[in-house]
Design brief:
The strands form 2 sheets. Strands 1-4-5-7-8-9-10-14 form an 8-stranded antiparallel beta barrel. With 261 residues, it is mainly beta. It is built from 2 helices and 14 strands. It starts with a helix and ends in a 7-residue tail after the last strand. The chain is elongated, with a radius of gyration of 25 Å.
Length: 261
């Protein structure tokens, strides 16, 4: 019973503080919420669940299995600058790249007849690199009238410019080096929750979802038996219903010191 009474009194204190903060005579600073009209630096960690430009490399052997690696659920990190407006809405510009580096091995799972070999042989084709960079601008509108709550919901719109490049280096002469690259422009929307941890810190939970994209992809197969024009390939991509998703968790730090009470 005492615990319930303490909880009710705590809720009443929070409600009274919220009413006082929304009063015209109240000071502009509230406990647990950032000041209005302030600048923030953010760092995100997340997973990119979208498809990326792929490499297509024919393996040795009669099966001619195509090496096609789809980079799904890869981690990334991003840095952002955000400006909170006096209305409680905010805009943000961010740049991100993949959170892994270096080369990775590429294997060919050449499946034989089941009645001849019990286990499929695994052949190492070579190594690959794959990197991306993204620049995103978004504007977020708060979904409730509360601007100083501990948890605030937002819905935003964004436009993203994305570039990606990859290279495959074989370990034998049976295959040839191959490069691939892609550039895309995509709009989308982002639901978001902001958790106010202190006067200067926020926790940002968001999931940007793209609505489609317009892209240009290219590849080059370094086969000396082909002409330079035959080695290169380029294509345009257009998608109007491509719901690619990111899952992000971020920490925002206010660049202004909180005002004294």
């Amino acid at each position: 019973m005492k615990k319930i009474l303490v909880f009710v009194l705590l809720l009443a204190a929070i409600a009274a503080d919220s009413v006082a903060q929304n009063s015209p005579d109240a000071p502009s600073v509230s406990i647990g919420a950032p000041p209005k009209g302030k600048n923030f630096l953010k760092m995100y960690l997340g997973f990119d669940l979208s498809q990326s430009p792929v490499l297509a490399q024919a393996s040795s052997g009669a099966s001619q299995v195509i090496y096609k690696q789809e980079y799904a659920s890869r981690p990334f990190f991003a840095l952002a600058f955000a400006r909170e407006l006096r209305s409680g809405d905010f805009w943000e510009i961010s740049g991100q790249t993949n959170a892994f580096s270096g080369r990775q091995d590429v294997y060919d799972f050449n499946l034989p007849r089941i009645d001849t070999v019990p286990f499929p042989p695994i052949e190492l084709l070579g190594t690959e690199r794959n990197h991306f960079a993204k620049l995103q601008y978004e504007h977020n509108w708060r979904l409730s009238g509360e601007t100083t709550g501990m948890v605030r919901a937002f819905l935003g719109l964004f436009v993203r410019a994305q570039g990606q490049w990859a290279r495959f280096d074989p370990n034998t002469s049976a295959n040839f080096p191959r490069k691939a690259w892609g550039a895309m422009l995509m709009p989308g929307f982002v639901p978001r929750l902001l958790l106010n941890g202190s006067k200067r810190l926020q926790i940002d939970l968001s999931a940007p979802i793209t609505l489609g994209y317009f892209g240009l992809n290219g590849s080059a197969l370094e086969n000396p038996a082909l002409t330079l024009r035959q080695q290169r390939n380029m294509s345009f991509d257009l998608s109007m219903a491509n719901l690619e998703t990111q899952i992000r968790i971020g920490v925002a730090y206010s660049l202004q010191k909180p005002s004294a009470k």
